[in-house]
C-alpha cells in the first residue's frame, strides 16, 4: 500500500540579471507561452500584490530597493549614473521562490487560505518590502505560489565614532543561506503549513529534484517536439497537395494542347475548303 503524500514544497532560484527577472515575471503573469498551463483556467490565478506598484517595470521596482544600500565606493564624479553603480556585476539580484504541496493534497483544504498563509510566511522571511511579485497559480496540475524577492538584508555597522547603525545590503548569500539553513527554512515553512495537514518532505531523499528551469525546459522541449512533428506533417500534406496541383495543371495543359490541335486541324480544313470553292 502506497503511503499518502502530504508534503510541502519549497524551491529557490538565483536571478542574476534584470532580463531573467523580467522573463520570470512574464511567465508568472502568463504573458509567455506556458505549455503546462490551461488557458481556460488563467482566470483562477491571483496576483497577491495587484495595485501595489505592479504597473512599474520590475527592473525599476527592484532598483528602488537596491539603491537604498547606496553606491559602491568611489565611481568618479563626472561618470553618468548606472544601475551597476549600486551592485557588483556578478551579484544575485533576486530570488525566484516557489511554494507548493504534493498533488495528492489537491482539494483537501482551502487554496485561498493556503496561498494567504504562504504569502504571509514569505513576507515574514524575506520582508514584504522586498517582494516584487507574488502570484498564486491554479491553472496547472497542482496549485503553487510564485514569488520574486530582492535579497536585501539589514546589517549592523559600526561608524568611525563608535556608533552602531543599521544599513541595508544586497546579500543573497546570507538571505538564501547554506544547505543546512535551507533545510531549516523548509522545516519552518512546513510547521507553518501544518494546519493544512502538510508536513515536511523527507530529508536527504535520493529522488532527484528538478529545478524550476529544468521543469519548464522539459515542458518546452516536449512542446517543441510536438510542434516539429506537426510542422513536418503539414509539410508532407502541403507537398502532397502541391504534387496533386501540378498533376492537375499538367492534365489541363495536355487537354488544352489536344483541343488546340483539333481546332487548328479544323481551321486548316475550312481554309482548304474555302480555297477549293474560290478556285
Describe the SSE topology.
Elements: E1 8-15, H1 18-28, E2 46-47, H2 58-66, E3 94-101, H3 111-126, E4 131-137, E5 144-149, E6 152-158, E7 164-170, H4 172-176, H5 179-192, H6 212-278
Antiparallel strand pairs: 1-3, 2-4, 3-5, 4-5, 6-7
Tell me what the structure shows.
With 279 residues, this protein is of the alpha+beta class. 44% of the residues lie in helices and 16% in strands. It contains six helices and seven strands; from the N terminus they run E-H-E-H-E-H-E-E-E-E-H-H-H. The chain has helices spanning 18-28, 58-66, 111-126, 172-176, 179-192, 212-278; strands at residues 8-15, 46-47, 94-101, 131-137, 144-149, 152-158, 164-170. It has a five-stranded antiparallel β-sheet, sandwiched between helices. A hairpin with a 5-residue loop joins strand 6 (152-158) and strand 7 (164-170). The protein is elongated and about 130 Å long. The protein starts with 7 loop residues before the first strand and ends with a helix. The model has no long low-confidence stretch (mean pLDDT 81).
Notable features of this structure?
single chain, 279 residues, alpha+beta, five-stranded antiparallel β-sheet, two-stranded antiparallel sheet, 44% helix, elongated
Strand content: 15-25%
Report the count of strand segments: 7
Quaternary state of this entry equals single chain
Biggest sheet, open or closed, and with what strands and sense?
A: 5 strands, antiparallel
Low-confidence stretches: none
Mean pLDDT: 81
Derived structural class: alpha+beta
Order of the strands making up the biggest sheet:
1-3-5-4-2
User: What fraction, in percent, of the residue positions are helical?
Assistant: 40-55%
DSSP summary: helix tally? 6
In N-to-C order, the SSE pattern is EHEHEHEEEEHHH
N-to-C span: 112 Å
Radius of gyration, taken over Cα atoms and rounded to an integer in Å: 33 Å
What's the shape? Answer: elongated
Amino acid at each position: 500500500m502506497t503511503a499518502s503524500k502530504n508534503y510541502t514544497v519549497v524551491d529557490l532560484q538565483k536571478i542574476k540579471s534584470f532580463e531573467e527577472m523580467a522573463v520570470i515575471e512574464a511567465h508568472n503573469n502568463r504573458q509567455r507561452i506556458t505549455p503546462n498551463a490551461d488557458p481556460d483556467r488563467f482566470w483562477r490565478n491571483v496576483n497577491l500584490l495587484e495595485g501595489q506598484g505592479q504597473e512599474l517595470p520590475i527592473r525599476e521596482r527592484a532598483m528602488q530597493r537596491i539603491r537604498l544600500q547606496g553606491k559602491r565606493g568611489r565611481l568618479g564624479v563626472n561618470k553618468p549614473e548606472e544601475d551597476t553603480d549600486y551592485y557588483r556585476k556578478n551579484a544575485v539580484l533576486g530570488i525566484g521562490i516557489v511554494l507548493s504541496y504534493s498533488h495528492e493534497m489537491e482539494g483537501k483544504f482551502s487554496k485561498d487560505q493556503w496561498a494567504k498563509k504562504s504569502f504571509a510566511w514569505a513576507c515574514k522571511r524575506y520582508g514584504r518590502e522586498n517582494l516584487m511579485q507574488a502570484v498564486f497559480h491554479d491553472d496547472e496540475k497542482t496549485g503553487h505560489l510564485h514569488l520574486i524577492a530582492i535579497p536585501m538584508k539589514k546589517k549592523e555597522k559600526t561608524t568611525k565614532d563608535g556608533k552602531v547603525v543599521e544599513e541595508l545590503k544586497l546579500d543573497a548569500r546570507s538571505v538564501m543561506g547554506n544547505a543546512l539553513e535551507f533545510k531549516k527554512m523548509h522545516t519552518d515553512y512546513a510547521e507553518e503549513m501544518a494546519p493544512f495537514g502538510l508536513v515536511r518532505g523527507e530529508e536527504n531523499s535520493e529522488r532527484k529534484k528538478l529545478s524550476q528551469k529544468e521543469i519548464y525546459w522539459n515542458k518546452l522541449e516536449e512542446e517543441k517536439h510536438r510542434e516539429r512533428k506537426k510542422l513536418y506533417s503539414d509539410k508532407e500534406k502541403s507537398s502532397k497537395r502541391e504534387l496533386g496541383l501540378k498533376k492537375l495543371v499538367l492534365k489541363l495543359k495536355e487537354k488544352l494542347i489536344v483541343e488546340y490541335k483539333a481546332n487548328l486541324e479544323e481551321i486548316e480544313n475550312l481554309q482548304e475548303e474555302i480555297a477549293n470553292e474560290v478556285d
